[in-house]
Amino acid sequence: MTTAPADTSSYRSSGVIRRLLAPILLAMLAMSALATTPAALATTDGRNGRITYSAQLDTGVQLFTIRADGSHVRQLTNRPGEHVNPDWSPNGRQLVYEFSDRVHAGIELIDRDGRHRRNLTPRGFQGQPAFTPDGRHIVFERVTPDFTDDSIWVMRVDGTHLRRITDNPFSETGYDTDPNVSPNGKRISFVRVREPDVEQALFSVRWDGSHLRQLTSYSANVAVKHDWSPDGSHLVLTVNADFADAKKSSNVALVRPDGSGFRRLTHYKGRTVNAFVGSYSPNGRWIVYRLENRQGRGTLPDGSFGLYKVHPDGSDRQLIASLINKPRYIAWGSRPAT
């Protein structure tokens, strides 16, 4: 959970965890001198519902939702701390997200209207949660109790039966984060960080941790935010997310699940404008993202941030909403059945 200058990695769960662990680890140094694989179901494609995002307020980073037409903004949380990395349940009725303060980073559930908050991990340091397609399990990033490992785990939706999936090979500096499950439930994609803010690549793996597959190069410096298309044919991601190449912009791109067919959807240059992806729409027809300038501020004439959508072929870009506060961790949910 790490701190980076631009997007995702700057407020991702590992940034939170490492910041929280720093005084604990220093104190320690001073003192010393499921058992089963989640079921595979069809993707959560369907009718497009509300879009969620996090934004910084005086009280901390809070969760919001907004209609897909840019209307009816709703604030879901309002307490000190950081509410980040939200993910919609397949039926669009709940959100799972990471909450952190100065002593803890954990995973919580909340109803789509902000009611019935539930803490799934009251102890330890966890973050970056995402539902499995059947809605019965949650994949997430976890730091082990001895602080020696930061990898991908899975648990039941009630917070029980935790099980490790990945074993990060860069325990001294790196970590595995941002897990997402393929629509057919067979593979888990995640970002493996070898050197924070510089070398970050997209991988996928089976539920038992086997058949590890690298989808992008580390030099792509992918953002700690990506998503599967509802039909499972592509993943959408952001490249040059932390400006490892200081002369290039961040851009939204697509890649196939086998790592082939890499293609940029946005083509900004020179860091003047930068695009950061959120997710696919549930019906697969749109990809939602935001724009910001070199200083991390909005690009609209009044200085606000544009929340945009574009077709997966890069056509028909549309402004969804103009927002005063930067929308981060953007995710598009399904409309609940009535």
CATH evolutionary superfamily: TolB, C-terminal domain
Q: What is the percent of helical residues?
A: under 10%
| Count of DSSP strands | 24
Query: Could you say what the CATH topology is called?
Result: Neuraminidase
Shape: globular
Q: What profile does the largest beta sheet have?
A: 8 strands, mixed
The residue ranges in which pLDDT falls below 50 over 5 or more consecutive positions are: 1-13, 22-37, 39-43
- Percentage of β-strand residues: 35-45%
Distance from N terminus to C terminus (CA atoms, Å) equals 38 Å
What is the tally of helical segments? 1
The overall average pLDDT, rounded, is 89
Radius of gyration: 18 Å
Q: Report the structural category.
A: mainly beta
Helix-strand pattern: HEEEEEEEEEEEEEEEEEEEEEEEE
Number of domains: 1
What does this structure look like?
The chain has 338 residues and is mainly beta. The protein has a single domain, classed as TolB, C-terminal domain (Neuraminidase), CATH 2.120.10. Helix content is 6%, strand content 41%. The protein contains 1 helix and 24 strands. It has one helix spanning 13-32; strands spanning 48-57, 60-66, 74-75, 81-88, 94-100, 105-111, 118-119, 125-131, 137-143, 150-156, 163-164, 175-181, 187-195, 199-206, 213-214, 227-228, 235-239, 251-255, 263-264, 273-280, 287-293, 305-310, 318-323, 328-334. Strands 1, 2, 3, 4, 5, 6, 7 and 24 form an 8-stranded mixed sheet that branches. Strands 8-9-10-11 form a 4-stranded antiparallel sheet. The longest helix is centred in the N-terminal third of the chain and has 20 residues, at 13-32. It is globular. The termini are far apart. Mean pLDDT is 89; it is low at 1-13, 22-37 and 39-43.
